Q: What sequence folds into this?
């Protein structure tokens, strides 16, 4: 049967996809989720090299098991090879992997590594996370939202917390899809001017509204509130952590904030530091869709891989 693929060459950053491509990927993800048996041979005979510079639970497991469900083979390449570009040039790494693999999935520290792999590889490259973007997570999040709301463009989505790769991808994809997006970050912890300008340009094209504020009291009415950890890998030093927690404390997502914004759904990409960016009570409540998001990582990524290298 036809796999109804979406025409894309790589999956690197959210703003490299148009509205039609994103919506088609969302629909394909839902189709694979609903009838996985129909796609059990979609990657038969195909192998995917998975590069992981950073530790992972959901990304590793969802890609590995997802590829298996599609009839393909996944090879994990962990930190034993060191940071990309140090042991050997990224160009050599990409050329070598292209000799063996049908696609490359990479979870790396820097976006430059993703761009280097895509430049030199002769097979498709998927960004499984870098310092600037997390497009696999954003796609899974919008798959989840499409399951919860009949019309995505009517959803009001807010992200509260540290401006990072997750918030970057969320707001870029929201702006492309025409979803109103509010970003609330402490002073000095928001996105770059370049990222804001890029998102604003997309929002103007789609008709979406983008609001960036440091005032948590200006969050306004929202349907969904999203948050992520305040403590990034490498910031676990006790003194540094204490300063971060003090600065971010007013931005905790809890039942009070949900009620203030009239929001009915809370999202988190995990891992969650319960009691910090989100309360345990809210994370475990009926408003939380965190595990639905986690499952949809697999289906969203499967849609990307089927589109990139699926058997027609």
A:
């Amino acid at each position: 049967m036809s796999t109804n693929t979406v025409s894309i060459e790589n999956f690197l950053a959210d703003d490299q996809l148009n509205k039609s491509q994103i919506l088609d990927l969302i629909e394909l993800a839902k189709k694979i989720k609903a009838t996985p048996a129909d796609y059990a041979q979609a990657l038969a005979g195909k192998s995917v090299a998975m590069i992981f510079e950073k530790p992972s639970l959901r990304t590793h497991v969802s890609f590995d098991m997802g590829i298996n469900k599609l009839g393909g083979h996944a090879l994990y390449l962990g930190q034993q090879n060191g940071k990309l570009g140090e042991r050997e040039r990224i160009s050599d790494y990409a050329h070598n992997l292209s000799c063996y693999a049908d696609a490359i999935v990479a979870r790396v520290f820097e976006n430059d590594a993703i761009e280097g792999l895509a430049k030199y590889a002769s097979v498709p490259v998927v960004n499984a996370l870098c310092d600037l973007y997390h497009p696999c997570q954003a796609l899974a999040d919008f798959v989840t939202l499409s399951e919860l709301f009949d019309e995505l463009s009517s959803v009001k989505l807010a992200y509260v917390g540290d401006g990072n790769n997750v918030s970057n991808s969320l707001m870029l994809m929201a702006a492309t899809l025409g979803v109103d997006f509010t970003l609330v970050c402490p002073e000095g912890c928001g996105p770059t001017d370049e990222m804001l300008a890029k998102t604003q340009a997309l929002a103007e094209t789609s008709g979406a509204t983008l609001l960036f504020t440091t005032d948590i009291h200006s969050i306004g009415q929202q349907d969904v509130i999203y948050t992520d950890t305040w403590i990034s890998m490498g910031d676990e030093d006790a003194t540094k952590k204490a300063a971060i927690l003090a600065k971010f404390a007013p931005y905790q997502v809890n039942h009070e904030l949900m009620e203030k914004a009239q929001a009915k759904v809370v999202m988190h990409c995990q891992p969650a530091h319960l009691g910090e960016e989100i309360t345990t009570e809210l994370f475990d409540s009926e408003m939380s869709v965190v595990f639905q998001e986690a499952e949809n990582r697999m289906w969203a990524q499967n849609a990307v891989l089927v589109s990139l290298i699926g058997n027609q």
The chain has two domains: 14-134+296-309, 137-293. Residues 290-309 form the longest helix (20 residues). The two ends are 7 Å apart (CA to CA). Residues 137-293 form a domain with the Rossmann fold fold (CATH 3.40.50.1370).
